[in-house]
């Protein structure tokens, strides 16, 4: 086993429950590297929602919570408020975050509470067998949209920024080094940080939406369909058509963070009593 796996994986939880070639393993790897780089093993708490992606924290030997579907952000917020010194990271599926948990997501961002939300965007409800998600592309065929999805998908990054998140980034599982670096930056950021990770789900989205079950081919598609936000600056509208922007998309260090501001107010009030 790789030394970082030896150091951080909970051996009794292995083997991983994910399908072969699933992108969740890459996100697990990028997270472990970020935690190791920042040397925060004893300060971090990981919170997972329900779904294949919600299992990422289960495998990492640090303080973890595996909570109700759609409720990872409220649990994480409560944890942060009870122990503001904690670095709290949420792992949430695109269904978990933008479907059932959508309201918690926008209010967490609005408060600018200091948690990092990693949203695993596989375009589908993976764990429950391939139902349509709020991120499924228009016209995409799933088990519950057999004639093609009649809806328009959410842009999770645009929604996070509009709701008040102060660090917003998007990467793919085809960019593991960049993803790990951005996870470390997001953990360091004081405020609500949101990272969307476009990922391959060979068993459901790959097979059902694209007719492609080969993980390597799906990774090639992720590379081909994305462009770095900096490289995009020099491209024409025609060159950018159909491309999804990746990279660090938004950063604001000025806005007040919720937990520290709350405790500052409380201690001021206490001092004036
Ligand atoms: C309250 C509640 N409703 C529905 C479910 C069933 N359920 C479990 S996981 C899931 C969707 C998972 O999709 P997503 O969040 O995109 O995660 P993925 O498996 O794709 O990583 C659903 C609907 C549940 N566990 N709890
Ligand atoms: S169903 Fe998709 S997301 Fe879930 S473990 Fe399998 S490949 Fe991964
Ligand atoms: Mg999903």
UniProtKB/TrEMBL annotation:
Keywords: Oxidoreductase. Residues 58-197 form the Thiamine pyrophosphate enzyme TPP-binding domain. One of its GO terms (molecular function) is oxidoreductase activity, acting on the aldehyde or oxo group of donors, iron-sulfur protein as acceptor. CDD domains: TPP_OGFOR. It holds the Pfam family TPP_enzyme_C. GO terms for biological process: cellular respiration. PANTHER family: 2-OXOGLUTARATE OXIDOREDUCTASE SUBUNIT KORB-RELATED (PTHR48084), 2-OXOGLUTARATE SYNTHASE SUBUNIT KORB (PTHR48084:SF1). This is 2-oxoglutarate synthase. It comes from Calderihabitans maritimus.
């Amino acid at each position: 086993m790789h030394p970082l796996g030896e150091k951080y994986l909970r051996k009794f939880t292995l083997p991983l429950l994910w399908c072969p070639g699933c992108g969740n393993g890459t996100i697990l790897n990028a997270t472990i590297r970020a935690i190791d780089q920042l040397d925060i093993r004893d300060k971090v708490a990981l919170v997972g929602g329900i779904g294949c992606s919600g299992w990422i924290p289960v495998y990492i030997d640090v303080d973890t919570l595996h909570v109700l579907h759609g409720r990872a952000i409220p649990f994480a917020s409560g944890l942060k408020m009870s122990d503001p010194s904690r670095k709290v990271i949420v792992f949430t599926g695109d269904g978990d975050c933008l479907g059932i948990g959508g309201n918690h997501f926008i209010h967490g961002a609005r408060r600018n509470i200091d948690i990092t939300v990693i949203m695993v965007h596989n375009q589908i409800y993976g764990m429950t067998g391939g139902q349509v998600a709020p991120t499924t592309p228009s016209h995409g065929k799933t088990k519950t949209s057999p004639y093609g999805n009649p809806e328009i998908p959410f842009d999770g990054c645009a929604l996070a920024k509009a709701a008040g998140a102060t660090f917003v980034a998007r990467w793919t599982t085809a960019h593991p080094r960049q993803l790990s670096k951005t996870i470390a930056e997001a953990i360091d950021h004081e405020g609500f940080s949101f990272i969307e990770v476009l990922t391959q789900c060979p068993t459901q989205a790959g097979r059902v939406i694209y007719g492609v079950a080969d993980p390597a081919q799906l990774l090639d598609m992720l590379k081909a369909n994305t462009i770095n936000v900096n490289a995009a600056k020099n491209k024409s509208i025609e060159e950018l058509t159909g491309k999804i922007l990746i990279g660090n998309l938004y950063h604001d260090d000025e806005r007040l963070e919720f937990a520290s501001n709350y405790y500052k107010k409380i201690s001021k009030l206490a001092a004036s009593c």
